[in-house]
Specification:
271 residues, alpha/beta, Rossmann fold, Hypothetical Protein, Haloacid Dehalogenase-like Hydrolase, Chain: A, domain 2, 8-stranded mixed sheet, 6-stranded mixed sheet, globular
């Protein structure tokens, strides 16, 4: 890919732009501010909810498009909501009525809160500044199941694979799903994917995927990585993703400022 073709920088957050402390380093901030000064369009595309992601990306200090909940929401650089898509209540209820292992933490991403049936300390650790609040609920007593997405987590990935297979057995064509991390399984509306949301942004800006470089570490980044002009996989990504996308370059890890270091060399001529 020729440097002169690149006009858009697209990056995931967790395991990609964020370090292992779930924050953006000063070095990464300085690189992105220089990219903005040089008129690159910046898009952050994450599985996080927008209320959770906005405080994190503010550290960059630059205007950007924010794609959240794996593509279910798009916010403009002015923080205007440009696109939203929810899973309807009956659809979500039908998933939760399946025989899901009670040891698995289930989360419904709602507009203002995330509803869960289990207290999970590891989930809480992903947000230093809590702007998207948890609500402990009994799903059997819930009335309104409408959600942005459904999120399952467990330390044993085999349990999550069993949940995925169970849902797909009952709903083979209804949803998009992805492992954002090996221990995190997410189900969204069929029309929702990071790449679909990014396509809307590029069209609005009169650009296309050939003008973009993208960075990711999870299977929810897969379509984005293979569709952009150049997709880069983080060194900390699961080996299964690296093997599946073996034609893509693997760069340094998130904790080594892999994204910023690559961009500074590719686009800013810093070494």
């Amino acid at each position: 890919m020729i440097k002169e073709n690149i006009k858009v920088v697209i990056t995931d957050l967790d395991g990609t732009l964020l370090n292992n402390h779930h924050s953006i380093s000063d070095y990464t901030q300085s690189v992105f501010q220089e990219l903005h000064q040089q008129d690159y369009l910046i898009v952050v595309a994450t599985g996080r909810h927008h209320l959770d992601a906005m405080p994190l990306v503010e550290k960059l200090g630059v205007p950007l498009y924010l794609v959240t909940s794996n593509g279910a929401r798009i916010h403009s650089p002015e923080k205007e909501l440009l696109f939203s898509s929810n899973m309807n209540s009956d659809t979500v209820k039908s998933i939760l009525s399946l025989d899901i292992d009670p040891d698995i933490t289930t989360v419904l991403f709602k507009e203002e809160v995330w509803q869960t049936n289990i207290h999970n300390e590891k989930l809480n650790s992903f947000s230093k500044d809590v702007t998207y609040h948890r609500e402990l609920v009994n799903f059997e007593e819930l009335v309104d199941f409408e959600a942005i997405k459904i999120f399952f987590t467990h330390e044993n990935q085999e349990k999550l694979i069993a949940v995925r297979d169970l849902i797909l057995e009952h709903h083979p064509e209804s949803f998009n799903h992805a492992f954002s991390l090996p221990i995190c399984l997410e189900f969204m509306d069929k029309a929702v994917d990071k790449s679909h949301a990014i396509a809307k942004i590029l069209e609005k800006e009169n650009l296309d995927f050939t003008h973009a470089v993208s960075f990711g570490d999870g299977f929810n980044d897969e379509m984005m990585l293979v569709t952009t002009g150049k997709g880069l996989i983080m060194g900390n990504a699961p080996e299964t993703l690296k093997n599946k996308l073996s034609h893509l370059e693997v760069i340094a890890t998130n904790h080594e400022d892999g994204v910023a270091k690559y961009l500074s060399k590719l686009l800013l001529n810093y070494y």
